[in-house]
Amino acid sequence: MARRFERYVAIGDSSTEGLDDPAAAGGYRGWANRLAERLAAEQGSLLYANLAVRGRGARQIREQQLERALSMRPDLVTAVAGMNDLVRPRFDVAAVAGEVEAMLGALVAAGATVLTFSLPDISRVLPIARRLAPRVHAWSQALHGVCVRTGAICIDFSASPVAADPRLWSQDRFHANPVGHALIAQALAQALELPGADGSWARPLPEAPSSPAHERLVSELRWWRSHFLPWLWRRVRGRSSGDGRGPKQPELCPVPDPRYWPVSSAEGP
Fold it and tell me: Is the peptide bond before 13 cis (omega within 30 degrees of 0)?
């Protein structure tokens, strides 16, 4: 391995927290945890903290997680933000890019290797997301520029068709499933040049048989009722899925057994 890492800190939103990659005993595992496990196995040890909280936008991540991450003196950081900003009524790509650039720049300046990634076009996964395609493209371009300026490493999932395969996404269509989280972890491992990590993660999955029209209709109606309408109702009320939650692993600790990743803690009494 090109470099040994001692302290890995992950910051971000629900993707970094690990939704929807459940651990066997409860809580979520996720790509950041999977990457930590791989590093610990390769090196023999690793201290790891995950400060991510679902529902957070780029500004909230910078304000609530960056200082804490820097205080841990990490030599490896994954910093992924912007997803929640994209789906809000107003999306200011320059403002979001500014928040992310401030984060990545500070972390790189502190001596950390910093990884992030762009979003794929998820219109295959979420048809109503077609109207967001221009935003996703604009954000990918902006993020690439941020990484060039700061020296952070960007995995460009927007250029990898497999990342938009519906079979890599959970039933809510907003988060990766376990297969998707594993793919993200593999891409990050390749970027770090870990032993055995190559570009195989980017290969397309075998072609899937098409389902009957009535099954697709039932699936769409179920998704609207179970996932989209509850999400929309939270937005209307100004609520977030992360309200009252803190990070699941707020301190640097040895990487635990992957079956027992902790649940995000509730804040307050």
Answer: no
Question: CATH no. for residue 89?
Answer: 3.40.50.1110
Q: What is the pLDDT of residues 148-185, one digit of tens each?
A: 999 999 999 988 989 989 899 888 878 999 999 999 99
Beta strand extents in the chain (DSSP E only): 7-11, 47-50, 76-79, 113-117, 153-155, 249-254
**pLDDT for residue 200:** 92
In a domain, 177, yes or no: yes
Q: Which of 16-30, 169-183, 184-198 has the highest mean pLDDT?
A: 184-198
Strand order in the sheet with 249-254: 153-155, 113-117, 76-79, 7-11, 47-50, 249-254
Residues sharing a CB contact under 8 Å with residue 53, sequence separation 6 or more, in sequence order: 13, 17, 64, 65, 242, 245, 246, 247, 264
64 within some domain: yes
pLDDT recorded at residue 269: 26
Pairing of strands 113-117, 47-50: unpaired
Q: Is residue 236 part of a domain?
A: no
Interior CA angle at 187 toward 88 and 17, to 5°? 45
Q: Work out how many domains the chain is built from and give that number.
A: 1
DSSP SS3 for 45 = coil
Q: In this structure, is residue 124 part of a structural domain?
A: yes
Q: Which long-range contacts (CB under 8 A, 24 or more apart) does 73-76 make?
A: 73/7, 73/110, 74/7, 74/8, 74/9, 74/107, 74/110, 74/112, 75/5, 75/6, 75/7, 75/8, 75/111, 75/112, 75/113, 76/5, 76/7, 76/8, 76/9, 76/39, 76/112, 76/113, 76/115, 76/192
